[in-house]
# Entry
Amino acid sequence: MNSQQAFFEEHGYVIVEKLFSDAECSELAGAASKLVNDFDPNETRSIFSTTEPDGKRDAYFLDSGDKIRFFWEKDALADDGSLLLPKERAINKIGHALHDRHPTFAQFSRHPQLKELAAQLGLKDLLLLQSMYIFKHPEIGGKVVWHQDQTYLFTSPNPAIGLWIAIDDATVENGCLWAIPKGHKEPLRSRFIREGLKQRTEVLNESPWNIQAKIPLEVPRGSVIVLHGLLPHMSEANLSKKPRQAYTLHLMQKDWHYAKDNWLQRPEDNPFTNF
Ligand code: FE2
# Structure
């Protein structure tokens, strides 16, 4: 086992600083910006907020596993659904199949350097499960509460691997990730289970997180944070005037099992694709 893999298995995350160039980050940011420019804001009023009850996930969200869809910041919409900000500052994220539906993201999601990183961590024959472009815009980008990704994408015998790619410098000031090192050795706390076009949260373990042990994962632009699917992590709201965009991927090995009651399901004729 190499030192990177050993660190990942011991701590539940590993950081590779500046794996990608400024030009590569700018290309992704430009592609995301163009998607928002072309997006008709009347397409949806679907909000993504982890501080709202999970019951608020709607069919637009639950059907987005093989599509490019847009989710608003909670504070960008008035009670009557009218937009309080220009759409360029009001989208929380785009998901969940940029890696299959958009040429720039499709190519980047299978970047040789990402493949090399996965290989160094001992992973092989991977499938891409989901992709998200997360804006966390200045002054409005919402908080993401403590969670384990395995809650949302349950795979076995191993949890899915998350890749979090910083498109901007991520710092405490603009809402970087925080994690509880070694927290991936603790049990899964809950599962987010799909039932048709509804979903519910099943609590498996009520132990509180040991948040005194949290550390900020500050990284420069172009860095990758690899996240174990059981590692507790969160990010604060971006109250600063600086952007904090990120592109994220989740992957599993082909020989792992993807739960049939995960919220994200692909149609039989459009299954998960290769990394
Ligand atoms: Fe997460």
